[in-house]
Amino acid sequence: LARDTARGLVAQEGDPSVNATERREVEQALDLASLWLDPVTSFPATTSGGGAWSRSAWIEATLPSWRRVVEPVAERVNESMSGMMPSGGALPEGLPPELAQMAGPLLGMARQMGSMMFGAQLGQGLGALAGEVLGAADVGIPLTDDGRAALLPRNVAAFGEGLGIDAEQVRLYLALRESVSQRLFVHVPWLRSQLTAAVEAYAAGIHVDPERIQEAAQGIDPSNPEQVQEILASGVFVPDDTPEQVAALARLETLLALVEGWVDDVVTQAAAGRLPAADALRETMRRRRATGGPAEHTFATLVGLEMRPRRLRETAALWQAVRESRGAEARDALWEHPDLLPTADDLDTAENIDAFVRRSAPLALSALDDLPEAPSEDGSTEPEA
Predict the structure, then answer these.
(1) Which of 35-44, 172-181, 294-303 has the lowest mean pLDDT?
(2) What pLDDT shows up at residue 368?
(3) How many CA atoms lie within 13 A of 57 on its CB side?
(4) What separation in angstroms does the CA of 357 have from each of 36, 324, 325, 341, 342?
(5) Which of 23, 66, 125, 289 sits CB 3.0–4.6 Å from 52 for a disulfide?
(6) Cα 116–117–120 angle (5° rounding)?
(7) Taking a C-beta distance cutoff of 8 angstroms, is the pair 201, 152 a contact?
(8) What is the DSSP letter of 366?
């Protein structure tokens, strides 16, 4: 249902196939981006091909990953709906008789309706997202398994409209972002599981609001998909806002911001002295992400889950500080394990960023030779601990 809904939406708006010229332009941009990235990151290029995608091709290529990401939420929605189903034919206590006649059949189909409602809403979100997304990695989470770098020429052209920047520079800048994001996702295998774990922790607190379900039952027509979608979007499924959920969303935001800040720093280095419009495009992209990118809008549609990297400038400054202190290889090495990454507290102030840079530096054992010596009990000297 999600696939059919999403593809139907992009078809309504027109989704022409990628022509030979667009494909060639994108492939050339991705090839050049790979050459520029090699000297500025220790993560090697991915070997899988990618190229230019239509909006429908993006839906087909990324839907398996979307399914894994949203499945915890969908399962929790269905569990909540099932929890309201009558047991042994008994309706919930206190339900008015006139409402019971309408609510009985509705509650009997609760789980099926939950699946249909969520699937339709996911399709609506993905259809809208397909009209905005610039590449396979544009939303900040890994949506392909094989590291394919891809751009959507039609959306790239729409993004560049009104910027007053040559289309080739826009395409090359976005190719840099796409290519380096894929390098990160391929060479940091734990990243996907960490993102999914945060979504799962969030989903654990979702429940059905019985009062809203009862209100919706009074006038719902199960055969009307638009009305069903409106009910889901109205907040029938709501989070508990438990401390665990708040912490899960904070982890999600911080991790997304760290990904975005790292991409920003690497691309800035790769484009320096080569791409005249790089600074302007960097600021445009920062505004786009900070004000709520396509990922946030899609997940906000799906039961209120927001995925916004809110601290882009802070994370970019932190990655830059690490690189300037110890080099690009040391910066990239922090992705070896999630425990090595900075926390939200490390981003609060410039002093905290500096403290993290110092704290994350590897211990130099050779420095022990320079420690001052202190006399021992027998009169000899030994290095002070």
Answers:
(1) 294-303
(2) 47
(3) 19
(4) 26, 10, 8, 11, 9
(5) 23
(6) 80
(7) no
(8) G
